[in-house]
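Q: Please design a sequence for this.
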């Protein structure tokens, strides 16, 4: 007996590892888009770093470098939208500080903090991959101080969004954001 035409092939676990897209299928990026990405990333981190050093906040806040990759390298991506950037960082920061206060800075605390931050970002549709690092830093470097959530995390996230609004919309080919809420 032959298999019916509509029968779906069962994919084995390891067959999933092959992926579905070939490198040749990926879109080509022109020099102008790379240049706008540089300009945006440079401006965002320059402003955040300058302001942080001006008020003696440890600078630069490393997860913002990763956020800049998304904001200026892939501004249309869901993870690059304002709600995800600001919400993801703030949520992860709150989790990190809370876990620091409850469990300290052990490897167990780091794993709980980052895992919980990921779960909550997924639950509340605030996924922003760099915020995983925010949770990590919140556990290990916030000293359990909730003011850390405000500065550098919330203020820095908002500055990144403002720069993304200005720079990404200067380019005729870009429009940012795709959505706010």
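A: Design:
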């Amino acid at each position: 007996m032959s298999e019916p035409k509509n029968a779906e092939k069962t994919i084995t676990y390891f067959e999933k590892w092959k992926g579905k897209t070939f490198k040749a299928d990926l879109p080509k990026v022109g020099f102008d888009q790379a240049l706008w990405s540089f300009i945006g990333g440079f401006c965002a981190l320059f402003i955040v770093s300058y302001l942080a050093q001006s008020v003696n906040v440890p600078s630069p806040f490393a997860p913002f470098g990763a956020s800049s990759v998304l904001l200026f390298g892939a501004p249309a991506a869901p993870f690059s939208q304002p709600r995800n950037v600001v919400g993801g960082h703030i949520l992860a920061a709150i989790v990190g500080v809370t876990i620091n206060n409850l469990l300290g800075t052990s490897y167990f605390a780091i794993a709980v903090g980052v895992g919980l931050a990921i779960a909550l970002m997924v639950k509340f549709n605030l996924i922003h991959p760099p915020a995983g690092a925010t949770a990590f830093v919140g556990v290990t470097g916030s000293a359990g101080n909730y003011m850390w959530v405000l500065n550098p995390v919330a203020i820095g996230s908002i500055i990144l969004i403002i720069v993304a609004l200005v720079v990404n919309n200067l380019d005729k080919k870009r429009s940012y954001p795709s959505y706010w809420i």
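Q: Thanks. Anything notable?
A: The two ends are 53 Å apart (CA to CA). The mean pLDDT is 91.
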